Amino acid sequence: MHLSVLGWEHVAVSTPRRCPNWEEMCFVKDMFWDEEECVMQLHPPHSRYVNNSRYCLHLWRPIYRDIPMPSPSFVGVVGLSPSDAATLFARMSATA
């Protein structure tokens, strides 16, 4: 269920026996938001944790502001496929 409450859009994603995986979270994200929209999972301070369901994760998007994002280059080499990255890192490790 996709909700808009107090300036936030929210979707809760759950399964009966395990937490949803990355592919499932991506699938649900694409069901409710455009592929170019940024949504997030949050890791709040422990004092603000609410855990009513063991196998539930949440997606959030603020309605009235953009989510700040780091440069894609902070994550990896833009345009490099996973297999090309593995080859590159293997070569770098072999020469180190």
Your description of this structure?
With 96 residues, the chain is of the alpha+beta class. The chain is 26% helix and 19% strand. The N and C termini lie far apart (50 Å). The model has no long low-confidence stretch (mean pLDDT 92).
Q: How many angstroms does the end-to-end distance come to?
A: 50 Å
Estimate the helix proportion, in percent.
25-40%
- In this structure, how is the largest beta sheet organized? 3 strands, antiparallel
Q: Report the sheet-strand fraction.
A: 15-25%
Q: H/E order of the elements? A: EEHEH
- In angstroms, what is the radius of gyration? 17 Å
Structural class: alpha+beta
Quaternary state of the chains: single chain
Rough shape?
Answer: extended
The number of strands is 3
The chain-level mean pLDDT equals 92
List low-confidence stretches.
none
Order of neighbouring strands in the sheet with most strands: 1-2-3
The DSSP helix count reads 2
Any key phrases for this structure?
96 residues; alpha+beta; 3-stranded antiparallel β-sheet
Protein topology:
Elements: E1 2-5, E2 8-14, H1 22-32, E3 56-62, H2 82-95
Antiparallel strand pairs: 1-2, 2-3
